[in-house]
Design a protein that fits this description.
CATH topology of the largest domain: TIM Barrel
Low-confidence stretches: 7-12
Helix content: 25-40%
Number of helices: 11
Largest sheet: 8 strands, parallel, barrel
Structural class: alpha/beta
Mean pLDDT: 95
Number of strands: 20
CATH superfamily of the largest domain: Alanine racemase
Radius of gyration: 24 Å
Distance between the termini: 21 Å
CATH architecture of the largest domain: Alpha-Beta Barrel
Number of domains: 2
Bound molecules: pyridoxal-5'-phosphate
Strand content: 15-25%
CATH class of the largest domain: Alpha Beta
């Protein structure tokens, strides 16, 4: 995705001003990010707030989102890799950053030098971190990730005893400071699922074992967005939400929690044309005009993150109404039907593809539900020729 610096063009809070705007644009509303931090702060109670900005802030732009979240009251940032942490540091962001997924040979020395906290998930990873700390000559700040039943990242149960010994030895050597301990839930989006309680029990047992060895992490955390919003008993010292920061509800059955979607995807009409009765539209002619009609061509396709599986299965808001997509989604383009007289839609108009609903457009959740996936994948998938711009945030 191309990114325009906010100074490059007006961010167009006026929806009527469309000319000169990119033909396909993901407007990231930083005021929405700040608002969502407020919602999450409220649900966090006394717990600290780590906002998760991995994967380029779920494809919203990590530097702008991180700055906005911190200014709005987030305490820390969570990322996946050391490289993601270094990107924050290179941008001058000096807030606490935790990075939690690494190959054994990751560049831990760079993380230590940059003051990035390292999540460790096995005695092998810990040994590599200790070696890097010794090479650099300063201790690593470490958070141990405990696998309590997700069976993905985190220290496996059969390695936990060894890990506790290794942590104790590394602390005694002064190679690391054990700053945190955390776990991640498998069923957080089903707030009453019994596995959540089983994971909590295993987590508490593991924490007790650390304490028995004299290891007392400063910060214990478990809750992603769903748990932050639905399970106050899992707050511990800090919550660790991601998707809710971007305004998408982690538990759609329970509503939107007052969150505001931050990504607003818009496409400008490239062409308006008549299609005669009996003519097929787009590859394979899966749609044939039942009568004379008019269509609008949008410059957006699967190369830009509009899934081909959404062919004929989504709507956009255009000219004050919902318009149905017809025919196949192609690599670069898709067609929507306007009706017999184009309904006042002209070339250059803006189609509101998904976003916060202010213009009557769908939520990214509509795409996800149609596809049988989650909205995380939809917003992370927007790419290609989409231009990312920012709105709000005092810009
Ligand atoms: C991605 C991630 C989160 C955030 O999850 P959401 O469901 O987006 O809130 C929290 N913790 C870990 C370990 C993660 O990988």
């Amino acid at each position: 995705m191309t990114v325009l610096d906010s100074g490059d063009r007006s961010t167009g809070d006026d929806p009527l001003v469309t000319s000169g705007r990119p033909q396909l644009e993901a407007i990231v509303d930083l005021d929405a990010i700040a608002h969502n931090v407020g919602v999450l702060r409220e649900h966090a109670g006394d717990a600290a707030l780590m906002t998760v900005v991995k994967a380029d802030a779920y494809n919203h732009g990590v530097v702008a989102v991180a700055r906005t979240a911190l200014a709005a009251g987030a305490d820390q940032l969570g990322v996946t890799t050391v490289a993601e942490g270094l990107e924050l540091r290179a941008a001058g962001i000096d807030a606490p950053v935790l990075a939690w997924l690494h190959t054994v040979d990751a560049d831990y020395a760079a993380a230590i030098v940059a003051g990035i906290e390292i999540g460790v998930s096995s005695p092998r990873h810990l040994a590599a971190v200790v070696a890097a700390a010794q090479a650099v000559g300063s201790p690593a700040v470490v958070t141990v990730k405990i696998d309590t039943g997700l069976n993905r990242n985190g220290v496996a149960p059969d390695e936990w005893d060894t890990m506790v010994d290794a942590l104790a030895a590394a602390v005694a050597d002064g190679a690391i400071r054990l700053h945190g301990a955390f776990t991640h839930l498998a069923h957080a989006d089903e707030p009453h699922h019994p596995v959540i309680d089983r994971q909590k029990q295993r987590f508490d047992d593991a924490l007790a074992q650390l304490r028995r060895r004299g290891l007392e992490p400063d910060v214990v955390h478990a809750a992603n967005s769903a748990a932050t919003l639905t399970r106050p008993d899992l707050r511990y010292d800090m919550v660790r939400p991601g998707i809710a920061l971007y305004g998408l509800t982690p538990v759609p059955e329970l509503g939107d929690f007052g969150l505001r979607p931050a990504m607003n995807l818009r496409a400008r009409v490239a062409l308006v044309k008549h299609v005669a009765e009996g003519e097929g539209v787009s590859y394979g002619h899966i749609w044939v005009a039942p009568k004379d009609t008019t269509v609008a061509l949008l410059p957006m396709g699967y190369a830009d993150g509009l899934p081909r599986l959404l062919s004929q299965k989504f709507e956009v808001q255009l000219g004050g109404k919902r318009r149905r997509a017809i025919g196949r989604v192609c690599m670069d383009q898709v067609v929507v039907e306007l009706g017999p007289d184009a309904d006042g839609v002209v070339e250059g108009d803006t189609a509101y593809v998904f976003g916060n609903g202010d213009h009557g457009e769908p939520n990214a959740l509509a795409w996800a539900e149609e596809l049988g996936t989650i909205h995380y994948e939809i917003v992370c998938g927007i790419r290609g020729r989409t231009t990312r711009t920012y709105a709000g945030g005092g810009q």
